[in-house]
Amino acid sequence: MNDFKNKLLLKPKKETQKEPPEVKKWLNKFREEREFDGIKSSTIGNDITRLKVFLNFVVERLEKSPDVLSNSDFVKFFNYLERERKLSRNTQNRYYQLLKVFYRLMRLDNFKDFKDESQERKRFSGFEIKHYDAISSDLLNDIMNVIIESKSRTKIRDATIIRFLWDSGCRISEALNLTYGDSDLEEGTFVLRNTKGKAERTVVCSTDTLEVLNYYVQYNIKKGSKDRVFQNSNGEPIGRGWIGEIFRKAVDKLKKDGKIPANRKIVVHSLRHGRAVDLLEKGQPIDIVKEYLGHKSLDTTLFYSHSKERKEKMIKNIQKIL
To answer: Where's the Core-binding (CB) domain (predicted)?
Structure first.
């Protein structure tokens, strides 16, 4: 009976959609150039995903090749992103930045008119950098309490990682890729090598965090110079999705309890935003904050100097002296 059942039930198709040869040709050229430039494979993968959207639109919808597109064709593509794919302005900006790189690497000139016109009309210059709300030290403590008081076997490790992210201001991938060889567990200094901007930088943690970190690493299975500081019970690297999920569950509980407004977007990356705002609030020069956080552009750091959180605090301070 089971054999009949298996034969009669519909099975999901396992077809993989093949890229048109024209699309594949341009993707391969782009990948080769990016690999030659030493770009991280994860970054290349993200770029390829977006580039496929552009190339498929060009080849299948416009029935053209990227090297013959005109200004109006690029306008059609961005209208397609907004009207049909319903992409946010920030995501559209990522496509715009990607196309600037693509046409430069392909040594093609036909994107120049659209780029110049976009700069002149400020099409992509007013997009908001921030995607998430920054986090304060008080809110961080609330989140930490939820995690520490949970029944999870890994609550100490997870809470330590989150506190380290707050202290260091580093990206989750930078923290999880941190090795023993790049960590001074006596001084509390850490060298980040596998960074988004490819430039090494040094970060620190507080003495309290360092004390807990040294307690935690006693139980690590692997302790070689190339082994990760943060690892699972088998000594293997921790997936970034795990920390994101732990953090999200804590935030959801606080929202349910009414301690965080439902409309606030608090995610792991909010720790990095919060660190930027906190350092600026404490009077650290903008260029120092830029270097510490590894911002590629000073504009990114300048954004935090005018952040909503800083403005709200400024308004309250002004109110006190009136």
So the answer is: 21-107
Q: From the candidates 196, 198, 255, 264, which is the catalytic residue?
A: 196
pLDDT per position as a tens digit, 27-43: 999 999 999 988 888 88
CA distance 139 to 278: 13
pLDDT (tens digit per residue) in 137-172: 889 999 999 999 999 999 999 999 999 999 999 999
171 is a catalytic site residue: yes
CA 83 – CA 127 distance, rounded (Å): 18
Per the domain annotation, does 126 fall within a domain?
no
272 is catalytic: yes
| Domain ranges, residue 100 | 21-120
**109/149 same-domain check:** no
Exactly one of 115, 157, 228, 272 is catalytic; which is it?
Answer: 272
Report phi then psi at 39, rounded to 5. -70, 145
What is the rounded CA–CA span in Å between residue 40 and residue 9? 43
Q: Which of 34, 115, 157, 269 is catalytic?
A: 269
**196 classed as catalytic:** yes
Whether residue 244 sits in one domain with residue 141 = yes
pTM for this entry: 0.59
User: Which of 34, 123, 171, 228 is the catalytic position?
Assistant: 171
